Amino acid sequence: MAGPVALILCTLMLGAAVGTVLYQAELGRLVRRVRTRVAPPPAAPSTPSIEELAAALRRVRREVLAPAPGTPMARRRGTVAAYDDLLALAAQALGVPDLLTGMREGADRDAERLRLEHLLRGAGLVFDQPRSDRL
């Protein structure tokens, strides 16, 4: 009795091994499909609070208005792009219309940046940090 059972088990194991090799792509898709159904959805990126946005805007704005001497042009452009992204986030958080996103570089974008700063100031966002030495 042990001989036929061992033969059947060996045949099944060999068939499973060959099937795994032959259907490797289909098994991979099945595993990914099951994993996406079982795994929880990724958490939505958390948006920073308006206080955090205001602090970041003040910090980056100082770098945009007065870059350190010798700062490469690529870094200056990157700083301006980061400032524009922060302005867009602040506009979204305060419900201010944002036309800056998607505009091309140039005078129109610079003018829109100033307009958006003005609208955000009107919505209560403080860009200039109060200094204690001014009275």
- Give the integer mean of the pLDDT values: 86
Question: In angstroms, what separates the terminal alpha carbons?
Answer: 101 Å
* Content-based structural category: mainly alpha
Low-confidence runs: none
Count of DSSP helices?
Answer: 5
Q: Tally of extended strands?
A: 0
Series of secondary-structure elements, N-terminal to C-terminal = HHHHH
Most strands sheet? none
User: Could you say how many structural domains there are in total?
Assistant: 2
> What percent of residues are in strands?
under 5%
Q: Tell me the Rg in angstroms.
A: 30 Å
Helicity level, as a percent range? 55-70%
Shape: elongated
Topology:
Elements lengths: L1 H21 L1 H15 L11 H16 L7 H22 L12 H16 L13
